[in-house]
Amino acid sequence: PREEVAYVTCTYRSTCIDQPDFLATIDLNPRSPCYGQVIHRLPMPNLKDELHSSGWSAGCSCLDNVPAKRNKLILPGLISSRIYVVDVGSQCRAPKLCKMIEPVDVFWKCNKGYLAVVRSLPNGDILIANMGDPAGNGKGGFIVLDGQTFVVEGLELKGNWEHECEAPPTGCDFWYQPRHNVLVSSAGFVPRIAGRGFNPDDLKKGVFGHRLNVWNLSCRTLTQCFDLGEDSLPLSVKFLHNPDAAEGYVSCALSGIIYRFYKVTHPVVPLFLVQRDNWAVEEVIRIPAKEVSGWIMCKMPAFTVDLVISMDDKYLYVSNWLHGDIRQYEISKNCKPRLVGQVRQLPCILRGGPVTVCRDEELKCQPEPLVVKCKRIYGGPCKMQLSLDGKRLYVTNSFYSTWDKQFYPNLVREGSVMLQIDVDTEKGGLTVNKNFLVDFGKEPHGPCLAHDIHFPSGDSTS
Fold first, then answer.
1. What is the tally of helices (H) and strands (E) in the chain?
2. Which residues of the chain are under the pLDDT cut of 70?
3. Predicted model pTM
């Protein structure tokens, strides 16, 4: 069914407003009088959690052994390491908080912190990637919530997923394919240092991760690591949706490179050897940096922060937070993606702004600002969510509150937005829907920063 409601995580951290973060419910029904508006707000009981990513307590499993009941949404606090469980099944348009796991439980039981991406596993458990330890030092890995044994009103914290000795230096995103018994995870950054803001001097100090990790899903062991370069920062990881497919993509924020990773098959294996799967990576997209003046560095990277793949595995969508555009690539016909659609927000390099573009391999001149429903859009495209039919791409423009404040101060003052991009699913092509705008600058307590998006009816990232 077409999406009629969206849940969006919103934070007040790094703004001048002392209010708790909240989960916003957005009306997406075009026939509704409240279309494109926030119809419900669920505030958290604490301040400065930085609600960031979110995920379902259960999703569609290609093993067909877990019912897909999206009745609970898991909200981890990126800064607080607190975990909220929200009941969206009882009243989908007015969710309520039903469980809270305090950070001290995460710290003591798992020695983890700075919780990021959430996904449900084939066995019904819930996996949450972490970026650091309780002190904010870099530490990758995952914590596990018991998704089958419900206690009182919520979920139990089971502990770490991986063996302690195999925790990567940093972590952020992950995806898995059960039929190939594999989980692939990306890097992130050291929260204690990069959490204060972006500093170019940190590029050579190990603050930004550069590994792509391949795990044995059933044994929970690390089997391969790919070093993508110290200036890479691989963030978003997506497998193709086809459960038989053994390939996916990872975006490297700082280098502007997108790699395809895939399973390498060995048709002839000696009988005395144990069969072992191997994976490989290849560069398939490179978005060139722009030579600029008036910015923190002389070259501005694309900073590709999110990837989304359409449910038919035909198109790959890329958000460039700093350059300010969304790109649509056709990936179904061969292993080399082909650019077929693009829309531009371009807030960082607008004409007349503080940044001057000295050399650009893609644009001939600096563009004008994007205006939707009489509102000028600040901040580049960040998190995306695609409808199941692939015709509507929704996007928010907050990446991380301290980095928002550093690179897009007007975004923090004016508040986030959620835009809708109309997609040509036949030939490719993207167009901003000028009749749709969710303006988080008009919230009752003041402008806030919006990030992750999910639909209870199903979406392209869960």
1. 4, 34
2. 59-68, 148-155, 266-277, 346
3. 0.94
